[in-house]
Write a structure and sequence with these properties.
- The chain has 183 residues and is of the alpha+beta class.
- The protein has two domains: 129 residues, no CATH class; 48 residues.
- The protein is built from four helices and five strands.
- It is elongated.
- 6% of the residues are buried.
C-alpha cells in the first residue's frame, strides 16, 4: 500500500519551509504589481497615453489589497495574543527532523515569523493555524472556587461566633434584669 506524505513533509524533505515560501510569494506579488505598473507606463504609446484615472484606479486597488493584508495580519496577531496564559493543544512541526508532535501547555509568548503567528507553548513553537483546542484550565478554576468557598465558610464561622456572643450577652443582661426585678 502506498503512503501519502503531507505537503509539509515533502517540503521539509527537500529543505523548503512553507512559511518562508509564503512570505516570498506575498512580496513577489506586491513587487510584481509595481513592476508591471512601471513597465506599463514606460512602454505606453506616447501618441495615445493611458489616462491618469486608470493608473489611479490600479494604485487604489493595490493600496486596498495591501491594507486588507495588514488588517488580516493584525487580526491574526490579536487572536494569538488573546491566547497568552491559556492552555492549548496544538501540532508542532520540526523542520529539521521532519517530525510532528502534539504539544499541550500554557502559551507563554507570541512571535511573528515569515508573516505567520507562532505561539510559544511551554518552550515549543506552535503555529497559530495548528492550534486544535483551547482547553479549559479546570484545575485553576477549581482551586479558585475552593478558595472562595473557604473564605465564605470562614466568614460564616466568624458571624456565628459573634451571634453566639451577642446571644450570651443578651441572656446575661436578661437574667440580671430578672434577678433585679425579683428583689
Amino acid at each position: 500500500m502506498a503512503t501519502v506524505d503531507s505537503i509539509q513533509d515533502i517540503m521539509a524533505k527537500y529543505g523548503m519551509d512553507a512559511t518562508k515560501d509564503k512570505a516570498k510569494s506575498d512580496n513577489l506579488n506586491k513587487d510584481a504589481f509595481l513592476q508591471l505598473l512601471v513597465t506599463q507606463m514606460r512602454y505606453q504609446d506616447p501618441l495615445e497615453p493611458a489616462k491618469n484615472e486608470a493608473f489611479l484606479a490600479q494604485m487604489a486597488q493595490f493600496s486596498s489589497l495591501e491594507q486588507m493584508q495588514n488588517l488580516s495580519t493584525s487580526s491574526t496577531m490579536q487572536q494569538a495574543y488573546s491566547l497568552i496564559g491559556k492552555t492549548v493543544l496544538g501540532l508542532s512541526y520540526n523542520n529539521v527532523s521532519g517530525e510532528s508532535k502534539y504539544v499541550e501547555g500554557v502559551v507563554q509568548s507570541v512571535t511573528l515569523k515569515g508573516g505567520e503567528a507562532f505561539l510559544n507553548v511551554d518552550g515549543v513553537d506552535v503555529a497559530l493555524a495548528k492550534i486544535e483546542a483551547v482547553l479549559n484550565d479546570t484545575t485553576t478554576s477549581n482551586e479558585a472556587m475552593i478558595g472562595a468557598i473557604n473564605k465564605i465558610n470562614e466568614a460564616l464561622v466568624s458571624i456565628n461566633e459573634k451571634i453566639d456572643r451577642l446571644t450570651a450577652e443578651a441572656t446575661t443582661v436578661e437574667t440580671a434584669e430578672n434577678v433585679e426585678e425579683e428583689q
